[in-house]
Design brief:
By secondary structure, this protein is an alpha+beta fold. The chain has one domain (5-84). The chain contains three helices and three strands. Helix 1 (5-22) packs across helix 3. The chain is globular. The N and C termini lie far apart (41 Å).
């Protein structure tokens, strides 16, 4: 797998936009390139005060990058991630 710094930076930027669009109150994330599906590790504040949850999501590089310019892909990723991050606290 060949990956440029530009692609990785772009993937990180797109991921941050998607997570922000979910409206999470507080979160940290790390994205790791893999051969097929990339690993996205999200830690978020949970609804119960003081607790944090860690979840690993998988997404293809192509789908992730296309989500910036394709509204239907963007919405599909949001729906999938929202269902996996349901315990995370949302902004008021």
């Amino acid at each position: 797998m060949t990956l440029s710094i530009t692609e990785l930076a772009r993937a990180r930027e797109v991921t941050a936009e998607l997570l922000d669009d979910l409206g999470l109150d507080a979160y940290l994330f790390e994205i790791k390139p893999r051969d097929e599906l990339w690993e996205l590790r999200v830690e978020c504040a949970m609804v119960s005060e003081g607790a944090w949850e860690s979840t690993t999501l998988r997404v293809s590089k192509e789908t992730l990058l296309m989500s910036h310019d394709d509204a239907s892909i963007h919405q599909r990723i949001l729906a999938e991630w929202r269902s996996r991050l349901v315990a995370c606290k949302l902004r008021a």
